[in-house]
Amino acid sequence: MRSADIPLKRFAKIMTFGKGKDFCPLSKLISTGNLKLPKTTAIFNMGPATSCVSLALGLCRAYAPDGRHVCYAMKAEGPRTPGVLPYRIEQLKFWKKTTPEEFVWQFLCINALKELPWTKLRLNESGDFHKQECVQKADKIAMLLARFKIKVYCYTHRSDLDYTGVKHLVINGSNFQKEGIPNIFMMVEDTKDKPLGWSICPEDCRICDRCSKRGQSIVIKRH
Question: Which parts of the chain are beta strand (E)?
């Protein structure tokens, strides 16, 4: 058998010295689905919600009319789930020190050894882009994974950054849209007041994939 004919799973086993996906540091910092996302979607965060740059810059729009901050990701980092914040801090450290190529080879290695492979990667269930370089880094990851038919998407409040060069990452702007951001995801008090032609988020990504497709305008009821 020629090397080019070796199945990807066998190749991954060789590359990980028989240790499997746990050989990759990313394996302990990437999760599979949640209550709303399917098991074919991987999740990786650039950092925790408690140190979210969007919140620090006053760009976060997750506020109720009475002024309450309603960030769902931040609630998960409270004392009732003490392991969440340290986990997301480790994700932050990994993101800062890892190149797009290193991230992708580890992702592909893990995915090759999974019984149910990932077909999508959602970035930032918590946190947001730290700076402009994160946008380019995420887009390069999306470009590399696109070759393996894996979509990469995210949401952002960072209306201050430049997205004009983004070609592969599908970004949903939280209550804003600009060049390079194909989708807008708006939080509303009542979905009956949605703009004409907009979709209503079913709050279950297992039955909907609009946010990973380009050209979507979506509203979600504040909850």
Answer: 31-32, 41-44, 120-123, 151-156, 170-174, 183-188, 199-200, 217-221
